[in-house]
TrEMBL record:
Residues 23-180 form the N-acetyltransferase domain. Belongs to the acetyltransferase Eis family. It comes from the Bacteria. InterPro entries: Acetyltransf_17, Acetyltransferase_Eis, Acyl_CoA_acyltransferase, Eis_dom, GNAT_dom, NAcTrfase_Eis, SCP2_sterol-bd_dom_sf. Homohexamer; trimer of dimers. Keywords: Acyltransferase, Transferase. One of its GO terms (biological process) is aminoglycoside antibiotic catabolic process. This is Putative acetyltransferase. Acetyl-CoA binds at V110, T111, V112, R118, R119, G120, I121, A122, R123, S146, E147. The active site is at Y151 (proton donor), F439 (proton acceptor).
Length: 439
């Protein structure tokens, strides 16, 4: 995908429906700093963020204006230039099973001012985004969510889950005492210079990851203005293997302490490890820092190897949360974009209230797991057939959700005996899907 998407006009159906309520739906002119600043302040207000400083506006102006930046304006207000609703979207590459990726429409900054809530503005925005994405030929939309109650109605389903970890350092002892490589503190600039390349190698084999845009690396390492406390507290440690090659980083902060200096909390803001040695060494590092009682880490995988490395896995309290939501727009393209485990013939009867994915589709995979997908009227007798919503299919897509669980919960119906077993066998991803950032 090129950056052409940024100027794709807003959806006419949504524009017409908002216009009926005297609201104007349009693209923000992101070459105009003042117009962008109005949009950005509305976005920040929408998430209960602060009024942003000039420096913060500048860094966002430099960092995110490559995106398609959309607003809704109410010209009857005394400040008509500040949008009452916002979205920002761009074409992403989402990693899928098989070390492949699919083009996906990433949607972010969905806000509607509290003064204009529950009048259908978000619905117009979301449906508009989906129609625009389909119009641009994108087979899927993706987003991370503030609340898990909002997006299923638009056909999204949770597909990548994350774990927030709280680790009691007094109980967290490694089973193995083997140590290889070296760890050392490095500067934010070194991190910015080296981490994206390592991440790029990890991303390609981890379903659920997306490309991380450069401003996000700046944010992780504390280089963006606006959160001085974060910037001051952030420390970065790099792991080098025995040949001296950087293989991972941990970005962390130590806070708290008080009168009892042993009572600090260490927060892992990002941990990136290219191989098992880097992973173990970086976790060992954070768990062994002196004067720390608790280590916290957000957005970790729901399948962290760390739990298997500790003598007491109850040292870790893991709180799972839905993280990445997917919305398939084009079923044949989406199903053809990933690889599967072995051969099967599977029929999907998909329902979609918005129409994009509605229909019957046949997925045939060969022994190597390569797919062939067709849109059909009737399923052949040998097909394992399931009936499901586009939201459930989107949840299953990356192979991190158990099919039997969706059957038991009524989200997937087996139209042929044991269809779920076949689906599970070929869909399951050997690498647990994980997404390490919000967007
Ligand atoms: C969430 C938000 C964008 C909704 O905007 P809105 O214009 O009030 O939403 P709409 O009026 O278009 O509602 C559309 C549908 O979603 C439902 N809905 C809206 N917000 C919801 C919420 N927070 N939880 C559950 N359902 C919600 C509405 O009931 C409506 O349902 P229906 O059409 O199926 O009957 C807005 O409340 C907001 O900006 N919240 C704060 C920022 C935020 O959390 N954004 C989401 C980021 S992922």
């Amino acid at each position: 995908m090129t950056n052409d998407f940024a100027q794709h006009p807003v959806d006419e159906t949504s524009a017409a429906s908002l216009a009926k309520n005297r609201l104007h739906y349009g693209l923000v002119d992101v070459s105009n700093r003042a117009a962008f600043a109005n949009w950005l302040q509305a976005d920040s207000r929408g998430f209960h963020g602060p009024t942003l400083s000039n420096e913060q506006v500048d860094s966002n102006f430099a960092g995110v204006t490559y995106r398609r930046t959309v607003g809704v304006w109410d010209e009857s207000l005394t400040a008509p230039n500040i949008p009452v609703a916002t979205t920002s979207s761009w074409a992403e590459q989402l990693t899928v099973p098989g070390g492949l990726s699919i083009d996906a429409w990433a949607i972010s900054s969905v806000t509607v001012s509290p003064t204009h809530r529950r009048r259908g503005i978000a619905r117009s925005l979301l449906e508009g985004e989906l129609r625009s994405a389909a119009d641009m030929g994108l087979p899927m939309a993706i987003l991370t969510v503030s609340e898990s109650t909002i997006y299923a109605r638009f056909g999204f389903g949770p597909a990548v889950f994350a774990s927030d970890l709280s680790i009691d350092t007094q109980r967290a002892t490694f089973l193995s005492s083997e140590r290889v490589g070296t760890v050392q503190h490095v500067s934010a600039d070194e991190f910015i210079d080296q981490a994206p390349e390592i991440f790029e190698r990890i991303r390609r084999f981890t379903p659920g990851q997306i490309k991380v845009w450069s401003m996000r690396w700046d944010q992780i390492s504390g280089l963006v203005p606006g959160d001085e406390e974060y910037t001051k507290k952030t420390r970065i440690v790099r792991y080098d293997d025995d040949n001296g090659t950087p293989r991972g980083f941990v970005v962390y902060r130590v806070t708290g302490g008080g009168i009892d200096l042993t009572n600090h909390k260490l927060t892992v803001d990002y941990l990136l490890a290219e191989n098992a040695d880097a992973y173990t060494a970086l976790w060992r590092y954070v768990l062994e820092v002196d004067l720390v009682r608790e280590v916290r880490a957000e957005l970790r995988s729901v399948d962290e190897p760390l739990l298997w490395q500790l003598s007491d896995r109850r040292a870790v309290t893991a709180t799972p949360v839905d993280h990445l939501w997917l919305r398939i727009l084009d079923v044949p393209v989406a199903l053809s974009a990933r690889h599967y485990s072995g051969s099967a013939v599977i029929g999907f009867a998909v329902t979609d209230g918005l129409g994009f994915a509605q229909g019957n589709f046949l997925l045939e995979t060969d022994k190597a797991g390569l797919p062939h997908v067709t849109s059909i009227d009737d399923f052949p007798a040998e097909a394992a057939v399931v009936e499901l919503s586009v939201s459930a299919l989107s949840s299953l897509y990356l192979g991190g959700v158990t099919v039997s669980s969706l059957v038991a919960s009524g989200q997937v119906r087996e139209n042929t005996a044991n269809a779920a077993v076949t689906l599970e066998r070929v869909f399951h991803s050997p690498t647990t899907p994980w997404l390490s950032v919000w967007f």
